[in-house]
TrEMBL record:
Residues 33-128 form the Methyltransferase type domain. The keyword Transmembrane does not apply. SUPFAM superfamilies: S-adenosyl-L-methionine-dependent methyltransferases (SSF53335). InterPro entries: Methyltransf_11 (IPR013216), SAM-dependent_MTases_sf (IPR029063), UbiE/COQ5_MeTrFase (IPR004033). The keyword Methyltransferase applies. One of its GO terms (biological process) is methylation. It holds the Pfam family Methyltransf_11. This is Class I SAM-dependent methyltransferase. GO terms for molecular function: methyltransferase activity. It comes from the Bacteria.
Length: 257
């Protein structure tokens, strides 16, 4: 799954926001912590932001994701670790900036994780994060939900609405950040484009590079291939509306300790 996630979903969905988030790192921030680094999509853009002598602690809860990232990125300034955002194994006030690209949505105890991020930041340090906006603002995700509902009905998985596209309420996020001790909170809805010329690669990414494939296998051995075909047809119809550039939208979050 991590290989398909990196090769198919990474460049299409996550690359534009990785660049946008990395651009927000304050100049001179030499001690960075990245949470939910996955296969290193954001990590590679953070390395050029480091000053001489800086370090980047890249962590994720999933060792398989980290294994892919380690293979793709080698840099003496990089330190890899398996870490739970709710129980960070780092000293108080250690980092100039904490970054989390599309990871906060999956954390069970979000208030606790945000308090941990606040704890490990130095005074004046910055939290920089992204979460997806609603599926209504992300047509590629919406069409997946539609196909799942058409094929599976009540058995359709809700992993999109309870996972990646579950934390889009800016007012709720603002409150969570303030309750964790953050100040100068700024949340921007950023619209970008998901560019794809190979619909089959995108379909493989969504099915084979996410928990969806495993869910379909549990429901029936034939479903993975069937859903791939239905998604390929649906993305083909969608391309008649958008071409190869489909809009997507996420929330860019900035806050200070």
């Amino acid at each position: 799954m991590p290989e398909h996630y990196e090769s198919s979903l990474g460049p299409i969905l996550f690359e534009p926001y990785a660049q946008a988030l990395a651009a927000l790192v304050p100049e001179g921030a030499g001690q960075l912590l990245e949470l939910a680094c996955g296969t290193g999509r954001l990590t590679r853009h953070l390395l050029p932001r480091l000053p001489a002598g800086g370090t980047l602690e890249a962590s994720d809860l999933n060792p398989d994701m980290l294994a892919v990232a380690k293979r793709l990125l080698q840099d003496p300034r990089l330190r890899w670790s398996v870490a739970d955002a709710q129980e960070l194994p780092f000293a108080e006030g250690r980092f100039d900036a904490v970054l989390c690209g599309f990871g906060l949505m999956f954390v069970p105890d979000k208030p606790k994780a945000l308090r941990e991020m606040h704890r490990v930041l130095r005074p004046g340090g910055r939290l920089l994060a992204t979460t997806w906006d609603s599926m209504a603002q992300n047509p590629r995700a919406a069409i997946i939900a539609e196909v799942m509902e058409e094929v599976l009905g009540p058995a359709a998985p809700d992993f999109l609405s309870v996972g990646p596209y579950s934390l889009y309420d800016a007012e709720l996020l603002h409150g969570l950040l303030q309750a964790a001790g953050f100040r100068a909170v700024r949340i921007e809805k950023r619209a970008l484009e998901s560019r794809c010329t190979d619909a089959a690669a995108l379909v493989n990414g969504y099915v084979d590079g996410s928990p969806l494939g495993q869910y379909l296998d549990r429901k029936g051995g034939h479903l993975r291939a069937m859903i791939k075909k239905r998604l390929l047809d649906a993305f083909g119809r969608q391309s008649k509306i958008y071409g190869t550039r489909v809009p997507m939208q996420a929330l860019l979050i900035e806050a200070s300790k």
